[in-house]
Design brief:
With about 450 residues, the protein is an alpha/beta fold. It is about 50% helix and about 10% strand. Bound molecules: iron/sulfur cluster (SF4) (2 copies).
Length: about 450
């Protein structure tokens, strides 16, 4: 059965979750702490609670879960915008079809050049992004772009995982994306509230709420194992959106054996032609609540934030549950090449070069990771989820993080970076609990320092 979301039902769950007693809230947080998973009603209670003591406790529980499951690694990725042609009119987006600017789509040579620049920044994992336009940006173009990126080799590195964020499409097209070897198929629902969705999506195929909402059903039935959801926080009430995400996740889990592989957490920011006063921009403290609630509710789902957030906010959110961030990003078509030639108008809150983001993560004692191991080991979909739920995923995450950091340090780090990364690696190797894995990691670190590449477990 395809996903259906009923706004009245969600409102009803939220309304019934008001006014829980202290002991009821403590009971929910106890269950969360024991990694028992939460029902939509439990999640609604956490979203509706007002008691500062429980909100504080929730932050602590989220931080503890984050540490237990993900440890200190933070996975890095970069977006790659290939086309800004779009036939949709979405009120909150600068690519909206009513906005007049010269649109472009990259040629395969330009895509190769962008991927090379990203590789030279040390990236191994990309999110390919494009607007929706079946004439100017058909599926065959996207497929060629993915093949071009995978075929690119620059220096001693290559892009090892291409996640794809393109418009909802047909089962045939999802099958093609699967066959070309995409990582996660990412699609933001934007908002789960159907009337708000109708208001914000004025024209174009995306206007069809139900077609958009059932995209992951078509994708998973067509063989795509890993799907990544998300909403644009600020379009509608955040409590409603979090519950929408949870119901969607439950539907995928029950129907296909794996819920969201990742959830992206964009917060609305100003775009060309947009009247910000028409939106409810989420405060920092509410946004922290959102991140903590989702971390608690779906402990095994990766959570992603982009460079839309400031470094200070990113630091707090990583502690509360974020497991993946972008670094050194450009959100312009051809932006990496433009930046190299000094022409980019950079407006992101975190506009630091990738290497500075890594230094900052290491200063905070996080281990930046360029790992793509699960996808390449066939640990996807339900296979990934069962490993994650058994608590064994961290036994491979930290070793892979240390090995890919070592690779980065050897290939892209300057002297001071090498000193800092080496210290961090030495400090974290003893934290690998499994003796065999610890020895293997030590061995592999030595091999990487001697010139071998792409070792993973
Ligand atoms: Fe922007 Fe995507 Fe909407 Fe196009 S479909 S206007 S790219 S949000
Ligand atoms: Fe992600 Fe798997 Fe690598 Fe862990 S081992 S960082 S879950 S790809």
């Amino acid at each position: 059965m395809d996903m259906v979301i009923n706004a009245a039902e969600v409102e009803n769950i939220l309304a019934n979750a008001r006014g829980k007693s202290d002991s009821e809230l403590d009971g929910i947080l106890d269950r969360a702490e024991a990694l028992k998973g939460l029902s939509p009603e439990d999640v609604a209670a956490l979203l509706m609670m007002e008691s500062p003591r429980h909100i504080e406790r929730m932050f602590k529980v989220a931080g503890k879960i984050k540490e237990e499951i993900y440890g200190v690694r933070v996975v890095m990725f970069a977006p790659l915008y290939v086309s800004d042609y779009c036939v949709n009119k979405c009120h909150y987006c600068g690519y909206s079809c009513d906005n007049k600017f010269v649109r472009r789509r990259l040629t395969m040579d330009e895509i190769r050049a962008e991927a090379e620049i990203l590789e030279r920044m040390g990236h191994k994992r990309l999110a390919l992004e494009a607007g929706e336009d079946s004439v100017n940006c058909p599926i065959d173009y996207i497929l060629d772009a993915i093949k071009t990126i995978y075929a690119m080799k620059a220096g001693s590195g290559e892009i090892r995982r291409v996640n794809v964020n393109i418009a909802a499409t047909t089962p045939e097209n999802y099958k093609k994306l699967h066959d070309v070897g995409i990582g996660t198929y990412i699609l933001f629902q934007e908002t789960y509230h159907e009337p708000a969705y109708a208001r914000l999506h004025e024209r174009g195929p995306k206007k069809d709420f139900s077609y958009h909402l059932t995209a992951f059903d078509r994708a998973m039935r067509s063989g795509i194992d890993d799907v990544g959801g998300g909403v644009l926080f600020g379009l509608y009430d955040w409590r409603f959106e979090v519950l929408g995400l949870m119901l969607h996740n439950r539907h995928l889990d029950e129907t296909y054996g794996a819920g969201f592989h990742t959830i992206s957490m964009p917060r609305l920011c100003p775009a060309e032609g947009m009247d910000m006063s028409a939106y409810e921009v989420l405060s920092d403290s509410d946004f922290k609540r959102v991140v903590a609630t989702i971390r608690i509710a779906v402990p095994y789902t990766g959570m992603i934030i982009s460079t839309r957030e400031s470094p200070e906010m990113r630091k707090e959110l990583i502690k509360l549950g974020i497991s993946q961030i972008s670094g050194g990003s450009s959100v312009e078509v051809g932006g990496y090449s433009i930046r190299e030639s000094g022409g980019e108008q950079f407006v992101l809150a975190d506009s630091r070069p990738a290497i500075d983001v890594l230094r900052w993560l290491m200063d905070e004692q996080f281990v930046p990771s360029f790992c793509t191991a699960c996808y390449r080991k066939g640990r996807t979909g339900d296979r990934f989820m069962s490993l994650a739920k058994s608590g064994n995923i961290k036994n491979v995450c930290l070793p892979n993080a240390l090995m890919t950091l070592c690779e980065y340090m050897m290939d892209y780090g300057d002297e001071s970076f090498k000193v800092q990364a080496d210290e961090l690696i030495d400090k974290n190797i003893p934290k690998i609990a499994n003796t065999k894995m610890r020895d293997l990691t030590k061995d592999n670190i030595g091999r990487i320092k001697n010139g071998e590449r792409d070792l993973f477990v």
